[in-house]
Structures are given as C-alpha cells and as structure tokens.
Amino acid sequence: MKDDGKFRESIVFSPLSEPIVVQAGPGSGKTTLLIERLKYIIEKRQKNYLGTGCITYTNAAKDEIISRLEKEGVQLPSNLFIGTIHSFLLDFVIKPYSHFFNNEDIPFKLASFGFARNYKNDIATMLKRPPYLINNSTLEAFESLNRDKNGNPFCYRGKIPSDVAKWWKSLLKRDGYIDQQDVVYLSYLILNKYEHIRDALSVRFPYMLVDEYQDVTYFQERLFLLLNHSTFFCVGDSNQSVFGFTGAQPENFKSKWENESYKTYKLSNNFRSAKHIIHLANNKTDIEQVEAGINGTSDQKVVFFKDVEQVSEVIKLFHRIRDNVECDEDYNPYIILARQNKYIRVISNLIKNQDIEPNMFFQKLKKEHYRRYKILYNSLIAILFRRESDFKQAVERIEEAFSYLLFNEHPNFVDLASIGYDKFMWKKLQVYTLQYLDGLVLSETTVAELFEEMKDFISNLSKDLFGIPIGNKLRMLNYNWKNQVKASKGTTISQLVDQLEIESNLSNSEGNVISIHNAKGQEAECVLVLAESKSQLDEWLALNNETEEARVGYVAFSRARKLLCVWAPLIEEEDYAHLDENVTFLDNSYISMKETV
Ligand SMILES: Nc1ncnc2c1ncn2[C@@H]1O[C@H](COP(=O)(O)OP(=O)(O)OP(=O)(O)O)[C@@H](O)[C@H]1O
C-alpha cells in the first residue's frame, strides 16, 4: 500500500484490540505515528480506569512525547504512564513486589548512578588490579552488567569475567540493591512466577506502546510476552540497533515482525532529510526510503571534509557552511556528533574556545570521599537554583543532599521512619535549611565552616521543630578533610558556587555536542559527524548494516535535516568516488576562498 496520509491513518485508527508492529527507517515518522496512536487510544479507550503504558527509550524521549501531547491540548489521563521501561517496572513491579525475592523481606533499592564507586577497592581486589587502575569506564561496566539468556550475570562490553560478574551481582543482592539492568530481570522473574501479579499488571495496562523496539533486550521481550492481556503497538528499525553493549538484540524486533498474531506495516517515506542525505543512507540498507518532507527537494549535497587534519578546522568549516543554510526556528539548528565521550569533551572545549579548569576542589573530594562530595555538591547546586528563583529544583537538591547525609541513599529509597520522621517533616527541614543557606554570606564562609555550621543548624532545627535528635546521623558533616585541609579552609562557598554557575552555563551550550548513541531519536537542521579514524568511516559507509558499528554510522547520518557534514582524518576522495552523486568533497581551501571573497 502506498505510504500516504490515508495509509498512516489506517494504522493510527486500527481497532484498539489489534496488536501492531511498524518497521521503518529513520525520519519516517515512527515516533510521530506512535503519538498519534496514543492520542487515539486516550480518546477511544472503553473504560476510563483502563491504563495505557507508553515505553520510551530515554527520559528525553518521554519529555518530548509529553510536551507534544500538551502542545496539542491533549488532557493526560491519570492512568497514563509515559517513561522508560525501568521506571515503569520500578513503579509497578519492583517497589510493590520485589520483597518476595529479597531474604530481608523488604523491596530492593535501586543502585543509583555512580554506585560502583563505593566498592572500588573490592572491585580492584576481585579484578586483581591496584585501585588506581579502576577507572570510570570499568566502574561503568560494573554498573551496566546485564544477564545472559540463562540469567547469569554477563558483561556485554567484554570487560568483566563471569566469576567477577557473579560476585558483583551477589554483593548487590546481599546489600539489598538491584541495578538498572536487573530491574528488568527481576521483574521478569516476579511476573513469571506469580500469575496473579502479571495478570493484575496486564489488566491494568491493556494498551502498551513501545518506541525503539529494536533495542529491547532478551528479558524485556520475555517480560512483554508475559503480559497477555495487553495489546502492543511497537515501532522500530532494526538498522538503528546500536545498544548491543547493554544486551539489546535486534532479533527481538525481527521475531515480533515475523509473529503472525501482529499486524505489520512498513513505512517508506522520510519526512526529515534532504534527498542526498536519504540517498546516502539508502546505500547502506535494504530499506529504500523516499524523500517526502519539505527538505526533500533541497539540492544540498552531503559534505565530506578531506585533507583537513585538525578537528578545530573541521568545526570552523562546518560553521562556515551552515551559515548559508536557512534554519527553521522550530528545530535545533545544529548538533555535532562523535562516538566516544573522551572525544566529545575535547570538542566541547574546542568549541568554547576557552580552557576551563575543572574544579580541583570537587574533583579531589569526589575521589577522596564520594558521599561527602554528593552532600556538598547538591547543597551548592541548591544555592544556585535558589539564586535563579527556581525554588522547586533547589529543594530537590537539598533533598538529595539530605538523603546522602542521613542515609547514604538516593532520595527514592530513604527510610524516614527509621529516624522518626514523616514526609512533611522531612520537607520542612529541607525548606528551612535552604533558607538558612540562602542567608549565609557566601563570600565569608569557607567549606570547612559550612560543614560545621550546617551540622549545628540541622541538629538544632530537628530538636526545636520536632523534638527529634538526629545529631548522630549527621556525622558526615564532621570531617578532617584528609588531603584537603588547607583548601577546605581557604575555599569560600561563593568561589565554588560561581564555578558551578560557569560550568552549568557551559553545559547548556555544550548541549550541541553529543554522542551518537545519545542522539538516537533526535534531529537537527545541520549535523556534523566526526569519525575518529578512516577505518571507522569505512565501516559506517560500507554497503551493509550487519555490524553494530555500521549501524552507528547509519544513526549518525540520519539525524540531519538540511545539511550533513562528515569528517574522518585522512579521508581519501577516490575511496568514496562511488558516492559522488550525493557527496561533495571540500578541503581547507573553502575557508581561504571565502575569506578572500
Ligand atoms: N506524517 C508526517 N508528515 C510530515 N512530517 C512528519 C510526519 N511524520 C513525522 N514528520 C516529521 O518528520 C520528522 C521525523 O519524525 P519522527 O521523529 O517521528 O521519525 P522517526 O521515524 O521516529 O525517526 P528516528 O527513527 O530517526 O527516531 C519530524 O520532524 C516530524 O515532525
């Protein structure tokens, strides 16, 4: 059937009881279609108490869907869930039922980001390495450990041997925690074992919509299959499956596609990109997309930078070229994409064109004592938000500081009853503390003084307001500052807050430089993709999408609406001559030419 408005309406307005899978390339409007279907479900669902779950891959995608619905004036019903699979399962399975699988008979707590840092020495011992060799990427690998199909702990990044992986998961369990990956695995175990729980969940959510289905993991798929009272609407693109290192498998989407109980649809239009971008991407896959949006008619070719060795020159060239592109205000004007975080930091600094010293005080405290770092950092960010009159965010930051101070926990998991508090008292203490921080003369208060004063203030406040002594819970605020004695007495709060303010402004402007993985689902008028080597670019441009690296290139190129520029060091024009119908090669002389003119 021709991919036109009528065809799309027929998908959106299909009977609510029909399970549907939509497969289509980038920019074809999959997410847009999913939102239309969601609107239709909200309007048509038969009983108001029936819920709808809309599973997004990231929180950014969740925000985007909510804002699009709100913009269109859709009233969001209270039983509508929009968010990641992890938050869905945390709310509806882990918090209410995970105590069934915990020897302590209490729900598991979520190990928050940065959690592995607390176990650095144990990790070093297990890996038989000195602690200074345990870097962030090793810690990240521990935090993202998943399971193989048999449920055994498994590192899809290939960094952690299986015996160490097993040790890590049992350590978490012993301490009452689960990590992000096990939110899915444990939820699967719970739903698989207890029929009444899975039935209750499935009946509560008879409509489930899932975006980016190609990145669903094995146990996520198994879990979805258990919800047999729910009707699924799934959209995805196997060619954009780039999260193999988390255990995601495009095969899950393929098997859904081949499952005869689903009605399947393919979309062929691309509403996002200029035609040469679409044709370049078509070269890589068996999905043939057709230019159908307003950008489709543009003759702007894809630009490859050749003979440009310095990334700073490439960025200059990119900005020069995009100066000539008329951008639509409704879209992000540009993004710069790279593969590795390390590289992204270098580029961010280049773009800012200024060397920002990372704040040594925070860096050191983070290494020396992570929990105290969390307390200080959050308190100061709260001051910053207060300055900007963002009271809500300020109190949230104080709450995080308090949660680490009193419980060494993320705010979601604090046990207020253990200190005789209720939620109202907890908030009240935070609001008063925020007022107190706001009243300090920041330029005259050192970090060491802040800790001492805060301890007295909070402990007196708790006694005066509620008659509850919590002084012994505040020992994190007693600190001898180890290797930072001098700095803690010589650094004022205003110096640190000012530094944080600069960093937060910078991170806003840095928002345009992102990793390819984080750019999934996003689009911008102009896109610069930085390959880090010639071999990487070769793989990105190869005529297949079999390898994950090849698919990473596909995702990167297809973010662009009007202009796509690509750079790889030592790129050779003759290697890519077969693309010349869609590609122009430019070198540094473009800049000098423009300057002369
Ligand atoms: N039916 C349509 N008519 C015109 N424009 C559309 C239509 N559907 C989507 N678009 C526009 O096309 C662009 C891409 O849409 P969307 O993000 O939904 O695509 P997608 O298939 O989810 O992309 P990706 O796979 O890259 O995440 C957006 O700017 C969107 O507004």
TrEMBL record:
Molecular function GO terms recorded: 3'-5' DNA helicase activity; ATP binding; ATP hydrolysis activity; DNA binding
Binding site for ATP: 24-31
Entries under CDD domains matching the protein: DEXQc_UvrD (cd17932)
Keyword terms, alphabetized: ATP-binding, Helicase, Hydrolase, Isomerase, Nucleotide-binding
Any single GO CC term annotated in Swiss-Prot or TrEMBL for this entry: cytosol
EC number of the protein: 5.6.2.4
Enzyme class: isomerase
Every UvrD-like helicase ATP-binding domain range: 3-274
Alphabetical GO biological process terms: recombinational repair
Catalytic activity, reaction form: Couples ATP hydrolysis with the unwinding of duplex DNA by translocating in the 3'-5' direction; ATP + H2O = ADP + phosphate + H(+)
Family: Belongs to the helicase family. UvrD subfamily.
Name the record gives this protein: DNA 3'-5' helicase
Organism: Amphibacillus marinus
Taxon lineage: Bacteria, Bacillati, Bacillota, Bacilli, Bacillales
